[in-house]
Amino acid sequence: MLLDSAFDAAGAAAGVHSSHMALLACFVISYPLGSVFLLIPKDQPALKHACNIGISVFFLLGMLHLWTGMLHVVGSAMATYILAAVMKGRAMPWTVFAVVMSHLLLSHWNRYMWPTDAVEISGPQMVLIMKLSTFAWNVYDGRQKLESLDESQKETRIAAMPDLLSYFGYVFYFPAFLIGPALTYADYMAWINETSFQKSGAGPSNSQDKQRIPSGRKRVALQKLVLGLVGIGYYAVYGSKFGYDIMLTEEWKQNPLWYRLAFTQLMGFTQRTKYYGAWMLTEGACIFSGYGFNGYDKKGQPLWNKAANVDILNIELAPNFKILLDSWNINTNTWLRNSVYKRLVKPGEKPTSMTTLYTFMTSAIWHGVYPGYYLTFFLGSLLSSAAKGARRYFRPFFLPALANSSAASKFAPPSTLKRVYDVLGTATTIVILNYIVAPFMILGFWDSLHAWWSLYAYGHVIVIGFLIWGNALGGFGYLAAMAKKRALKASTKEAWAAKESMTTPAAPGTPFGELEMPALGGLVKDIQANGNGKANGHVNGNGRKMASTDRSAL
Questions:
Q1: Comparing 126 with 505, which gets the higher pLDDT?
Q2: Which residue is catalytic, options 367, 450, 460, 538?
């Protein structure tokens, strides 16, 4: 074929397998196809479903020639549909999860035993597993009483099994079929029916803005296209020059430690640009097709961030590991939180450190069977626990002792000490991240250990040493006691100040009801809050409040 010849030539020029050029072409082609798709009237959903299926099948067979892969996709999708329709209890979603994950592991094992540089089906299968397991839980939630569900489960529940055409349209949603982002069936149908464009908020009210699709779609999508191509281009030029496999060479050992540490940071950033580029391209394609509208901001401007899978600034400048996790591979984190983490916790109970470990290990299994994945995610789970300890026990000392005692303090600018804490947190987070991900890129077990040891295992020393000091040696308990004393001392001073203000003569004619009274009840709460190290949640790039739980980053 003419296309195959063009991909072969482009791949040879770029130094990659021709299938990667075909994959890139699929991403770019999705943009004009998205605009054509929007020409289909909303009262013809069957045609929309059929177009999704047809375009994705063309990508899979006509562009990537994954004929056997097509059987894998249809097989997992049909198995999920049948199990969801036939089984009724809580065992149904777990059974679906076991079946589709086992199927994915077979593809991963095939890739492990017979490595290839070509694009193969395990990538699209990884996205498919997220959609299918989420679909199973959404069907399960649709059979439960509303009062037993949280808000996100109420929004995504499926009250009745969809027909096969609608279901496969969801499975084959073309802009995100190959590498994501994954979406829920409820979001897909809201996009098909165009009810997603009717989100509440401070939207435009004048007549010229009463359009079918909110403004800004093309502008935002083209911005993502440019950013995606820049990321892919940067990686194409520098990816091999800053690859983690350099750690396995003899020349690497001859360099001084400071050079190896600095070069590791460049390697980490460079390898991330590959993911930044690919996710930006697919996010833009989703937006061009009309998916991704997320309401309006406070100024009434449309938000097109629902399909975001990465927040680059919040990764490269993350003040702590939690914000970094919330900003990396966002849709995978959402899937792990909603379909694994929350489902492992029984009603009325709280998640434990083992819940976090199981979630991280699920992410490792989902990524593949290479030992490097498990080394990265196991240490990542420990880092997540260490980061939670730092936030709970260290952070209060860099905030006002009674940070919640008044509304003014909540909106006060951060102190110089707090800014220093954030800068140190950013530096520590990114330096440890670039260390932890080395096995994720190297893949082999002994090679990964060799790479870590060439850096004197500094990530292990920091993370495990901090956990031993905090838990085994009582460091966390000591800090908690200090925080309580600090809060008690501050509350006592505030109470005395309030008492003295009451004895100050009021201005003549001041009504008794306008005299300020000390909020002693609030002071007690402040002592408890600061003593327990409670912290606020984080709002991710999609404008959604993220629960203070640990999610997978990679």
A1: 126
A2: 367
